[in-house]
Write a structure and sequence with these properties.
It is built from 13 helices and nine strands. The chain has about 325 residues and is of the alpha/beta class. Helix 8 packs antiparallel against helix 10, helix 10 runs antiparallel to helix 11 and helix 11 runs antiparallel to helix 12.
Length: about 325
């Protein structure tokens, strides 16, 4: 394992990967937070995924001033998963950290995540580690929600603990799952991406959850920073609809059908994501038959799941103004 050598001032190269699509109003903020990182040895790869607004013009203005920026333009829109894959394929860094085009990262994000990874690797002698950072989510109505990174407290989630959580919302006592496994707060060694494989380009959303599931099946450890190092801004776009979320969840469940069937929960999870889709798309009457089916066929599981997960979600949504809620915003 490569370590930071303080005596010779040798720093591992870290690649900051930024995926961009129609983000002319926010991409400069994301690039600025990458350029302002306190870690001295970085390369920044920006994938302009065939934006139809002035994103490329905004990016070009930054490139003219900073030569460590690498810009790759897609001639057709390929989606976030394909853009992330292009970053991992082009990366020369020993580590990769993903930044979103509408977020901002603290200047010490890379340094803190790097140190967290090395400390954990050296202490537990493991090499399949992904690190996520805590942060704050901002909504247009002024509501802000702090979130703690997965693995930033108590017992570190690893292996099937994470598989069961991401596929079935099953939590183990004492294990801290925090804000899940969003790629925009993730940092890991380049070797991790090579071992786990590409992000699934079939998935229009939740490609990061799918990647984390595969990493977890390989025995991956999911650690986090206690420090709040990222600011996420909820935005509206064509790829953040309830239908796309539903289709992505559906595909992930189908990919993991054998495992879910082995746990006796394939049917349940397929119904649950349909119920969630009806809720987010404001089709409550459509949800009633599904609720009735769940109460008949999975009464204990559904009751526990609804009162823990469902009520928290509704309480969260009540803090977001109605117009924003109806826009079906997802991270």
């Amino acid at each position: 394992m490569t370590e930071h050598n303080k005596k010779s001032d040798v720093f591992s190269l870290i690649t900051v990967g930024i995926t961009c699509f129609n983000a002319e109003k926010t991409i400069k903020r994301a690039i600025k937070s990458a350029l302002n990182q306190s870690w001295p040895n970085i390369e920044i790869i920006i994938i302009n995924d065939c934006s139809t607004d002035n994103s490329l013009k905004a990016i070009s203005k930054c490139v003219d001033k900073h030569r460590n920026l690498i810009v790759i333009n897609h001639e057709v829109n390929k989606g976030c998963a394909a853009s992330r894959n292009r970053i991992t394929h082009e990366s020369k860094g020993e580590f990769i950290a993903f930044f979103d085009d509408d977020d901002s990262s603290h200047e010490d994000r890379l340094k803190t995540q790097y140190q967290r990874i090395l400390e954990y690797e050296n202490k537990y002698h493991v090499d399949m580690v992904a690190c996520y950072c805590s942060g704050i989510r901002y909504y247009p109505n002024g509501y802000k929600m702090p979130f703690r990174a997965i693995g930033s407290q108590t017992i570190i989630p690893k292996g099937l603990m994470v598989v069961d959580y991401l596929l079935m919302f099953k939590k183990r006592n004492g294990v801290f799952y925090g804000g899940g496994t969003p790629a925009n707060s993730m940092m890991a060694r380049l070797d991790i991406f090579k071992k786990v494989g590409d992000f699934d380009i079939v998935l229009k959303r939740q490609e990061d959850a799918d990647f984390a599931i595969r990493l977890a099946f390989m025995g991956g450890h999911f650690i986090g920073t206690a420090e709040f190092l990222i600011e996420q801004y909820a935005t509206i776009s064509h790829d953040k609809t309830s239908l796309i979320e539903y289709e992505s969840s559906l595909n992930i469940n189908i990919k993991n059908k054998i495992y879910l069937e082995g746990c006796g929960l394939y049917d349940y999870m397929m119904k649950w994501i349909k119920l969630r889709h009806y809720y987010h798309s404001n089709r409550i009457f459509k949800a009633l038959p599904v609720i009735f089916y769940m109460l008949i066929n999975h009464p204990v599981k559904f009751a526990g799941h609804f009162f823990v997960s469902g009520t928290k979600r509704m309480a969260h949504d009540m803090k977001i103004n109605k117009i924003f809620l109806n826009a079906n915003i997802f991270f």
